[in-house]
Amino acid sequence: MTGFTMKLLTLFLCLSLTVVAFVSSADVKDDEDVSMVKFKKFKNRYRKKYNKGAQCSYYRRWRNRKKMVFKHNQAALLGNSSFTLVDNQFADETVEEWNSLLGLVIPGQFNLKKLGIKDLTAVDPNKSAEDRQVISSTITIPSSLDLRRHRCMPPIKSQLTCGACWAFIATTSVEFQSCLKNITTPVRLSEQQLIDCSRDYDTNGCNGGFYTNAWDYLINMGGQVANATYPYKGTAGSCQYSQGITKVSGRLSRYIYLDSNERTILSALLQRGPITVSIAANSKFILYSSGIFDDDSCKNGTINHGVVLVGYGRANGTDYWIVRNSWGTSWGLNGYILMKRNVNICRLAEYAFLALL
Ligand SMILES: *[C@@H]1O[C@H](CO)[C@@H](O)[C@H](O)[C@H]1NC(C)=O
Ligand SMILES: *[C@@H]1O[C@H](CO)[C@@H](O)[C@H](O)[C@H]1NC(C)=O
Ligand SMILES: *[C@@H]1O[C@H](CO)[C@@H](O)[C@H](O)[C@H]1NC(C)=O
Ligand SMILES: *[C@@H]1O[C@H](CO)[C@@H](O)[C@H](O)[C@H]1NC(C)=O
Ligand SMILES: *[C@@H]1O[C@H](CO)[C@@H](O)[C@H](O)[C@H]1NC(C)=O
Predict the structure, then answer these.
(1) Can you tell me the distance from the alpha carbon of 327 to that of 161, in angstroms, rounded to the nearest whole number?
(2) Is 7 or 141 the better-scoring residue by pLDDT?
């Protein structure tokens, strides 16, 4: 068979499947255009290139998700949802490809309950008294906070196709706290150093890790190198950092665990800056476009992603968090998402930590 006939056949198969799906779908209330023409536009918009023979399955995934997006947005228009979705650059991807956007793994021996943690007690019990002083419980709480344009907030980054959200969120905290301590120009630190060099601390490169393990590594190493010195590659490699030789910028001294109490988390955010958290991200999170994310279906999901809380507020009668992601600026609200507050949305409150210099 020539390449051309093959192409024709693929196109025909994709199209005939569309027709079957369309005819057999009983609720043809959804009149969304999921034609090949629309798919071509989607492909061009995101400069998609597929391996030989794979186009059909990418088309089918995009079509199903586009329909889901349409249904959801119709409901949002009618007031049944407070957020909207979009068939963004991830809408055609496989589950494996989606996994490479995530990369949060809770360490096996990590058991907060066992530690008997309550309120603002540190993971290290020797430091608990000190940590209680870090965050005062008697401050006035303003109605909103937005650190997105704070001079110490680094620009939104992109982890590309490397499941190392853990390294990105660990770095955001160190960058912000370093900048707070240092009035000079904020420095961009190296996620790649964490990916390549912290394996002895139970992290697994582009296949997942946990932020406190990355911080343990940094505390022992005495700091984090600038991104300019140790640039991001988006794949895991051998460690290029040599202690005493490579110049270090971000020096972390400790981190504290915040009880899964969103008032405590808010208070810490107000007084000390960004809070690093874990969430159970689902397909609606991945396809998020705007509004306050309040999807219920991630409530009991497996924790798989890490993000950073950088503010809060209230709109349309709903309290929300301003949440920073590491999927570039074209995702969500210029790289951020608003998530409902005080309902442990997607388990967001369960592994909240504050890193300090
Ligand atoms: C909103 O959702 C509820 C429950 O899913 C449903 O019964 C109702 O018809 C929906 N309302 C609108 C306006 O779509
Ligand atoms: C980090 O380094 C990479 C590789 O040089 C570069 O593409 C990227 O823009 C840098 N990131 C920041 C935030 O400076
Ligand atoms: C503060 O900034 C200076 C100059 O950029 C740098 O040499 C130093 O390492 C920084 N200190 C910290 C704590 O980041
Ligand atoms: C609040 O509702 C209005 C009108 O529906 C909408 O335009 C706005 O985006 C909503 N605000 C948020 C933060 O979702
Ligand atoms: C989710 O978990 C909570 C508490 O762990 C439980 O009470 C609830 O029944 C669960 N909901 C579902 C839908 O499984």
Answers:
(1) 10
(2) 141
| Single-letter code of the amino acid located at 18 | T
In CATH, what is the architecture of 112-356?
Alpha-Beta Complex (3.90)
Confidence (pTM): 0.87
- Residues enclosing ligand 5, CB less than 6 A? 299-300
What are the structural domain ranges in the chain? 3-81, 112-356
CB atoms within 10 A of CB 9: 12
Provide DSSP, 118-182. Answer: -TT--SSGGGHHHHHHHS-SS----S-EE-TT-TTPPPP-B-TT-B-HHHHHHHHHHHHHHHHH-
Predicted local distance difference test score (pLDDT) of residue 226: 92
For this structure, is 298 an active site residue?
no
CA atoms of 176 and 250, how far apart (whole Å) = 10
> Is 325 considered catalytic here?
yes
Atom of ligand 5 nearest to the CA of 300: 1
Element (H, E) at 81: none
